[in-house]
């Protein structure tokens, strides 16, 4: 089992293997800091890229796993959750709660479990790609495995 001292990508790899998904992490020396860059490097549809977006919900992190082709409607999400305003988290807040930097956040491998929402439109894709903990790494996963590993609530987010 990897620790946070081993680095975020090692933690993500370990989480994938322990969950029975296998190590599907790919590294790109030129980097994949955006969904568009990742889709180009992976030669896949932008909508199959799973953005891991951390928001601040009353001081607690909220992870929204959204299609790279979508913009999250935070007002819609807040109304579906029956909660107050959802705010964009600062880079410091994201790092504190995930152990990963903005632009490379993975949907798993965080110090503590984070409340997670999964964009239900992602299930249209046979294979999804998500950040693996840094700006250079992505991993592949099915929608059902992503749902299982994150314990996410499926919801329309746009």
Automatic annotation (TrEMBL):
Alphabetical list of InterPro entries matching this protein: YbaK/aa-tRNA-synt-asso_dom_sf, YbaK/aa-tRNA-synth-assoc-dom
An example molecular function term from Gene Ontology annotations: aminoacyl-tRNA deacylase activity
UniProt superkingdom: Bacteria
Annotated ranges, domain YbaK/aminoacyl-tRNA synthetase-associated: 31-149
Gene3D superfamilies: YbaK/aminoacyl-tRNA synthetase-associated domain (3.90.960.10)
CDD domains the record matches: ProX_deacylase
Name of the molecule in the record: Prolyl-tRNA editing enzyme YbaK/EbsC (Cys-tRNA(Pro) deacylase)
Organism: Pseudarthrobacter niigatensis
């Amino acid at each position: 089992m990897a620790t946070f001292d081993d680095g975020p990508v090692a933690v993500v790899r370990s989480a994938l293997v322990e969950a029975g998904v296998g190590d599907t992490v790919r590294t790109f020396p030129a980097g994949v800091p955006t969904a568009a860059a990742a889709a180009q490097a992976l030669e896949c549809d932008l909508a199959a890229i799973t953005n891991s977006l951390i928001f601040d919900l009353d001081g607690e992190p909220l992870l929204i796993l959204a299609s790279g082709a979508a913009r999250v409607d935070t007002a819609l999400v807040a109304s579906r959750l029956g909660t107050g305003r959802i705010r964009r988290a600062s880079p410091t807040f994201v790092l504190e709660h995930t152990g990963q930097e903005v632009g490379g956040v993975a949907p798993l491998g965080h110090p503590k479990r984070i409340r997670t929402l999964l964009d239900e439109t992602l299930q249209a894709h046979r294979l999804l790609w998500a950040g693996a903990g840094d700006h250079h790494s992505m991993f592949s996963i099915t929608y059902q495995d992503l749902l299982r590993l994150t314990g996410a609530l499926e919801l329309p987010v746009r």
